[in-house]
Amino acid sequence: MLSEDGFGHDDHIPLTKNLVLVTGAASSSGKMSTCLGQIYLDHQLEIKS
After folding, report:
1. How far is the CA of 20 from the CAs of 1, 6, 23, 47, in angstroms?
2. In whole angstroms, what is the distance from residue 30 CA to residue 22 CA?
């Protein structure tokens, strides 16, 4: 999971704010996976998140 094929599979989403609200159409729409992936990618880029 913690690899380029796991959480690192998605592209990094550049942000300009410290707080981000993630919404989705329904449960199981990938919100948690997207958030964890962004935290993983932030860590790879040495961004504190």
Report:
1. 23, 22, 10, 15
2. 10
Query: Would you kindly state where each structural domain of the chain is located, as residue ranges?
Result: 7-44
For the whole model, what pTM was predicted?
0.78
Task: Give the span between the Cα atoms of 25 and 18, in whole angstroms.
Answer: 23
Residue 7 CB contacts under 8 Å (≥ 6 apart), including other chains: 1, 33, 36, 37, 39, 40, 41
pLDDT digits (tens, 9 = 90+) for 4-48: 788 888 899 998 988 999 999 899 888 999 999 999 999 999 998
Nearest-angstrom CA–CA distance, 33 and 39: 10
What letter would DSSP give residue 46? T
